[in-house]
Design brief:
Helix content: over 70%
Order of helices and strands: HHHH
Distance between the termini: 26 Å
Number of strands: 0
Shape: elongated
């Protein structure tokens, strides 16, 4: 079961990103209630991802990257950038949510623009890290 968790985590990561993008498109279409529902689902899914990710790594430790040479340098550079953007997303999300819940739409919109952009990068770079660790064929 533990061996399936990286795949599950990647699924949750991409699901949360897709839900957030659905929320973005809903608000762009002036569908505020739909936006709210999509974003709540995105945040719940992202939280489930984080919990699952932490449980997996607490039990399993770090999975080594199998590649060598230039691809290894690329991988570790990507991993560092991914880690930083994931942490930044985790910091920005509560602030963005706070302003939404307080109905401070002007401030929420400013925070949300950056939060979503960084969230997109963190999720997609996380997908690339996953593919490189679990599906790389040197």
């Amino acid at each position: 079961m533990i061996s399936l968790m990286p795949h599950w985590n990647t699924f949750l990561n991409l699901l949360s990103l897709n839900l957030a993008l659905m929320g973005f498109f809903a608000i762009r279409a002036a569908q505020e209630q739909r936006h709210k529902k999509w974003m709540i689902a995105a945040i719940v899914t992202a939280t489930l991802f984080l919990l699952s990710y932490l449980i997996y790594h607490a039990q399993q430790g770090i999975t080594p990257f199998p590649g060598q040479g230039a691809i290894r340098t690329f991988y570790f550079s990507l991993l560092i950038i991914h880690g930083l953007t994931a942490v930044i997303t985790g910091i920005l999300l509560p602030f963005t949510l706070y302003y939404a819940l307080r109905q401070r739409r002007d401030i929420h919109k400013k925070w949300a623009k950056w939060t979503l952009l960084i969230w997109i990068f963190a999720s997609l770079s996380g997908l690339l890290v996953y593919l490189m660790v679990y599906h790389w064929q040197p």
